[in-house]
Design a protein that fits this description.
Elements lengths: L24 H24 L2 H20 L7 E2 L2 E2 H30 L2 H5 L6 H29 L6 H15 L1 H13 L3 H16 L8 H7 L3 H14 L2 E3 L5 E3 L2 H29 L1
Antiparallel strand pairs: 1-2, 3-4
Helix pairs in contact: 1-5, 2-3, 2-5, 3-5, 3-6, 3-7, 3-8, 3-10, 5-6, 6-10, 7-8, 7-11, 10-11
Length: about 290
């Protein structure tokens, strides 16, 4: 006795699916985009609730600008296409922006090594999407101190051309992403929560060597030209100063644009190579 085989085509009202179709394929892309957006919102909400982090990323640079820029007696002196207050404002906004991106990069590395990556592997978010969302979060968080410090500058007498304001802000936002790699290196190298603190603390030293907190001259200025923060900040100041750097004696030292661009490019390559090597090393240990 043979049993009759019932196929989808033989069932009334059922249309056979083509072999090339995949269930849910049409909805997978919108669903992935929605989950990516939700993950970005989750990350931003988590960061904005961390008041300690917000103080160091947003509050401290704003306070330092008011202290060393707006309240200084020399703040209204001319500096290139603006005044000294704008010069200091750009410097403090740069410090806040890199502090934000270093923290994002360091925390991302620590999360991956503590098992968060395996949890995300159970979702439609792949490695590329994870990196992209972290980059978006880094850009948004880096924008916060820039906006706050620039608003303070606008309210406290920082003056300059439109090009100086907008050009420096754009360079600060884009250039700060380079330091997410710097934070990633610390997170992969130290493999603990202390990595983020170590990376952020090292920025203070780089800030002094990078001619951010006070003008350098002589040997220290020559040394500063080889540090990563120096190129980034000099490039951000370029729309204001045209390449002139204020030394500790109040004089001006002119630097060509290619020097700042080369500094940023070389350090970006170094950070990228180190981060790639550390990622491969961490995978080999798993």
């Amino acid at each position: 006795m043979s049993a009759a085989t019932t196929t989808p085509a033989s069932r009334p009202g059922v249309t056979p699916r083509r072999a090339t179709e995949h269930p849910g394929h049409a909805a997978s892309q919108p669903r992935t985009r929605g989950e990516r957006t939700a993950y970005v919102r989750l990350e931003l909400r988590r960061i904005l609730r961390d008041l300690v982090t917000l103080f160091f990323v947003v509050g401290l640079p704003g306070f330092m600008y008011v202290l060393f820029g707006a309240s200084a007696g020399y703040s209204q002196q001319e500096a290139g296409n603006g005044n000294v207050a704008l010069y200091v404002m750009i410097s403090m906004a740069a410090y806040g922006a890199v502090t934000a991106t270093v923290g994002i990069g360091g925390s991302a590395a620590v999360e991956r090594m503590q098992g968060w990556g395996r949890q995300l592997g159970l979702t439609p978010l792949g490695d590329g999407t994870y990196v992209a969302t972290k980059a978006v979060v880094a850009l948004v968080v880096a924008t916060l101190p820039i906006v706050v410090v620039y608003v303070l500058g606008l309210l406290t007498g920082a003056e300059g051309t439109v090009t100086a304001w907008l050009g420096s802000a754009a360079i600060l936002v884009v250039g700060a992403v380079m330091f997410a790699l710097y934070g990633l290196i610390f997170g992969l190298a130290f493999r603990s929560e202390a990595a983020v603190s170590a990376a952020s603390g090292s920025l203070v030293v780089l800030g002094f060597l990078g001619n951010i907190f006070f003008p350098l001259s002589g040997f220290l200025l020559e040394l500063a030209r080889f540090t990563p923060l120096y190129g980034y900040v000099s490039l951000a100041r370029y729309p204001l100063t045209g390449g002139d750097v204020i030394d500790s004696e109040g004089g001006l030292v002119h630097e060509a644009l290619w020097m700042s661009v080369t500094n940023v490019a070389v350090w970006t390559v170094i950070f990228a190579v180190l981060a790639t090597w550390l990622v491969r090393r961490s995978r080999g240990r798993q």
